[in-house]
Amino acid sequence: MLPVIDQAGISEIVDELNQRGIAPERIGGVPQGWKLNNAIKTTERKLAGGALKHGGSRLMAFAVGNAKAEARGNAVTITKQVAGSAKIDPLMALFDAVVAMGLNPDTGRSVYEERGLLVI
Predict the structure, then answer these.
(1) What is the mean pLDDT of residues 94-104?
(2) Cα distance between residue 5 and residue 59, in whole Å
(3) What is the Cα–Cα distance from 91 to 61, expressed in whole angstroms?
(4) What is the value of pTM for the model shown?
(5) Would you say 95 and 78 are in contact if contact means Cβ atoms under 8 Å apart?
(6) Is 99 helix (H, G, I), strand (E, B) or coil?
(7) Over the range 66-91, which residues count as b (16 or more CB within 10 Å of their CB) and which as e?
(8) Dist CA 19 CA 69 (whole Å)
(9) Radius of gyration over every alpha carbon of the chain, rounded to an integer in angstroms
């Protein structure tokens, strides 16, 4: 699977990955802003359909509680509902993961399976 990273300000990250043997053409960018609309909608549908479930984490509940969905044109964006220190990073990481999984990564064994762990 390609490393998937934020498209904004990534030159230092690309340089570091390149030094570690990962060629720049193997690095995929995660869209930001309105371009995350597909991931937001996909997450919403998967939650409603039961294919994706909230794990009950207080951290994710906190992040979702700080998030606000805003319609902008035909797109939906997620912003911080309150200013200051409120964070939505775990929620944004979920959307990034939805983008990464949408790239249909190689379905080889995971590091968890290799260590004898069951992940559900």
Answers:
(1) 83
(2) 22
(3) 9
(4) 0.70
(5) yes
(6) helix
(7) bbeeeeeeeeebbeeeeeeeeebebb
(8) 39
(9) 16
Residue 70 to residue 68: CA distance in whole angstroms? 6
> Using CB atoms within 10 A of its CB, is residue 95 exposed (0-12), middle (13-18) or buried (19+)?
buried
Strand partners, 78: 69
Q: What is the pLDDT of residues 49-87, one digit of tens each?
A: 988 888 889 999 999 999 988 888 888 888 886 656 778
Sign of the CA dihedral with 52 first, then 57, 60, and 62 last? positive
One DSSP character per residue, 4-48 reads EEESTT-HHHHHHHHHTT--GGGPEEEP-GGGGHHHHHHHHHHHH
User: CA 17 → CA 2, 62, 101, distances in Å?
Assistant: 11, 32, 20
